[in-house]
Amino acid sequence: MAEPGKTENATPKKREEARKRGQVVRSVEINSMLNVLVCLIILRIFGEYIFNNIKSLSSYFWSNVTTFSITLDTIGSFIFFVISKLFLITLPVFLSVFIIGILSNVLQFGFLITFEPLKPSFDKINPFRGLKRLFSKRVLFELGKSIIKILVISYIFYSTMKKTFNEIFLTPLMDIETFLIFAADIVFKLGIKITIAFIVFSILDYIYQKYEYEDNLKMSKQEVKDELKQLEGDPLIKARIRNIQREMARRRMISEIPQADVVITNPNHIAIAIRYKEGEDNAPKIIAKGINLMAEKIKDVARKYGIIIMENPPLARTLVKLEIGWEIPPELFQAMAEILAFVYQAKGKFKLEENEKNVDNIGRNYYFPSPENGGN
Fold first, then answer.
1. Which residues make up the CATH 3.40.1690.10 domain(s) of the chain?
2. How is residue 171 annotated by DSSP?
3. What's the predicted TM-score (pTM) here?
4. Which CATH number fits domain 258-373: 3.10.180.10, 3.40.228.10, 3.40.1690.10, 3.40.50.2300?
């Protein structure tokens, strides 16, 4: 039973850890039920084969018992011969039980190989824990289940044998073939009834095993919070990391501002630093942007390095929506070309007539004037 205070369902992480330790939902009754059912099916299919081979083996034994010489060498050979014959006769039954034993476990909890339950642990040999387990709810449930199984199977056996009570007294008068057919018929009837009882047991047992498994894995609210912190990290540490990342990004952005050609402002609340290098950039690129205090910082750096600051509120409001490192969209090419042309002219990097010629060509080929090519 779950400890007091453990009211939360197990998280996927705890379920995975429990599975690695071999803690899964598993009902032994399902294995027993499937084994009995498969044995009945195999006996029904291979019954004639098993019967004929047992009959042949018995005939061989009794026909040679008087001529058989018992020595140390012959007795060993005889025992090996009988065991090997019996193994081959019953091989379909043993093979089916082996296969169904594996499949029944795979069907219940999937394919799992773990050696965790085999590891030595002091808790396994602790006498106090042993006494506690001895009187645990699980042990009491298994004890009660075993008693009910014995009573039910005993009643099935008694009721079946009672109906064939008179025929049993006639078995000494039967030949071996009739006796084996009679015994197989009784065994099959018993098997069918026991299988039906095992189906009921297995359903009830699986429901209980599922309940106990979930109950044992329950967690307290604090355990869930601690696990969440382990998976996602401590919120305080994550916030600190985000602050450091933002500060590093801010410093990197500020270090790029000296490369800007122009800073476009709102004028008071927004500042966007634009750079355009012919041959390197396909279009003007945003290398820094900021709002309020960061905008003031960008303008201060721009003044320090002699970068022209231009007021263009509509353009600034549009550019601030873009990310740092993005090139401006085509619909802003003409406005940006006019600004860059003015900036280059103000810096005396190309002649006015060349500036006017480039601005006239903007609508056709989105040409951006550059000081490197003299405006051509």
1. 258-373
2. G
3. 0.48
4. 3.40.1690.10
pLDDT digit string, tens, across residues 109-143: 777 776 666 666 666 566 666 666 666 777 788 88
Q: Which is nearest to 364 in space by CA: 320, 321, 342, 333?
A: 333
| Rounded Cα–Cα distance for residues 181 and 172 (Å) | 14
Nearest to 256 by CA among 279, 288, 278, 302: 288
What's the rounded Cα separation, in Å, for the pair 184 and 46? 12
pLDDT at residue 151, as a whole number = 93
E strand spans, the chain: 262-265, 270-275, 285-291, 308-311
Residue 359 CB partners (closer than 8 Å, separation 6+): 337, 338, 341
Under 8 Å CB-to-CB from 98, ≥6 apart: which residues?
A: none
Residue 199 and residue 33 in contact, taking contact as beta carbons nearer than 8 Å: yes
Q: Alpha-carbon distance 240 to 216, whole Å?
A: 37
Residues 60-90 as b/e (b if ≥16 CB within 10 A, e otherwise) read: eeeeeeeeeeeeeeeeeeeeeeeeebeeebe
Beta-carbon contacts of 287 under 8 Å, excluding residues fewer than 6 positions away, are: 253, 256, 257, 259, 260, 273, 274, 275, 324, 325
Q: Is 320:270 a contact under the CB 8 Å cutoff? A: yes
Question: What would the pLDDT profile of 322-339 be if each residue is shown by its tens digit?
Answer: 888 888 888 888 888 888
**Residue range 37-93, pLDDT digits in tens:** 888 888 778 777 777 787 787 777 777 766 666 676 677 777 787 788 888 888 888
